[in-house]
UniProtKB/TrEMBL annotation:
Chain ranges of the FAD/NAD(P)-binding domain: 7-329
Designated name of the protein: NAD(P)/FAD-dependent oxidoreductase
GO molecular-function terms, A-Z: oxidoreductase activity
Entry EC no(s): 1.6.5.-
SUPFAM superfamilies, per the entry: FAD/NAD(P)-binding domain
Amino acid sequence: MVTEPVRILVVGGGYVGMYTALHLQRLLKAELRSGTAEITVVTPDPYMTYQPFLPEAAAGNISPRHVVVPLRRVLDRCHIVIGEAESIDHAKRTATITTLATDEEGTGPVQLTYDELVIAPGSISRTLPVPGLADYAIGFKTVEEAIGLRNHVIEQMDIASSTRDPAIRDAALTFVFVGGGYAGVEALGELEDMARYTARYYHNIKPQDLKWVLVEATGRILPEVGEDMGKYTVRELRARNIDVRLETRLESCEDRVAVLSDGTRLPTRTVVWTAGVKPAPVLARTDLPLDERGRIRCTARLGVEGVEHAWAAGDAAAVPDLTADAPGRECAPNAQHAVRQTKVLAENLVASLRGRPLKDYAHKYAGSVASLGLHKGVAHVYGRKLKGYPAWFMHRAYHLSRVPTFNRKARVLAEWTLAGLFKREIVSLGSLEHPRAEFELAAGPKPPEPQDEASKGGTADGGAKSD
């Protein structure tokens, strides 16, 4: 009698999805080889993005291809499906998937069946109904956005250098970042550092001509590193002529003018939105229990609360923090917890398949590190507070140890070493976003469509109209 293989579906190929699948293919090596188990990973992109390196990629310190990890190479025993989960009916053990071929085929979404579900779609940018935001702002969650922002910043410097209109110049050299968390502060710090260096190669732009504004709705930035380090970060940024606006909101950015809640109007061609994230929309289209923030309710064993054969971790999951001083607290949605949760999740999933006892996830939060540009940073780790070069070095060392695969570690380390020996790259490759533009121009306009005889007003024999 031939038994059906155990079908494990992993929704999401980000940090949690990739690491969970990686642990599963190691723990189930014999089952995968014999065909008694199979793992399918559904992900919109064929790579995992190591998001803590996005600011350095935007600053040109790391090549974009070294910030991502190819899933087909790392998960060589898994079936990779490039697509998106539109909805999940766990009661029926089915997931509705759209792939890159869905529109071409014209047959509608694909129905995937499974036995065990790992749902880890991550998060998306949390936006607010700010007028003009969708038209003029850019996010900072993907490698495409990071590289696009680098190209955009250098392009604005080119515009400012070549224009004779002072209003256009001022708007081009004004950069507004909204959100004082990790993404906003690190992106601002790295790009300001890069732009200040780049200004030396422009004959008519000085570093003090560039205006950088950080807008934060609360009274502090970088709350993860503690209040003291947050205040130090504000002082450090202001010392670099960066305008930090606390307890201030972006009211509008219509017509390329950023209007702040304190009444300030900033003509600008650059608004970067990093004001938080929210769970992926697919979670709302499942029959799994969600909390008030839209995340999946989980137990300490990383199983979905009240549901069998469903597991979750990372940004999409509300996981109890067993190490917290006060009861009822949940693990912070950061990489420090996510990478450890994936190991426990995979071990518990395999243990459940083999009828073994499960274990709880418990990890005492170690602290946080943040980069503020080259050789500048802040850190609060195991109760110790660091700033400046030591914090920056710890930031690099920690994330180098966490970036997946030895291949990526070696490449990133090599790039950092070469960057210390040679000058920064100041090239903008904005044309990469429109690769066919030059060929379309070379190909010329389309030839006019042939007109039939009736449209010309003549007859088939070329004669005049009859009376």
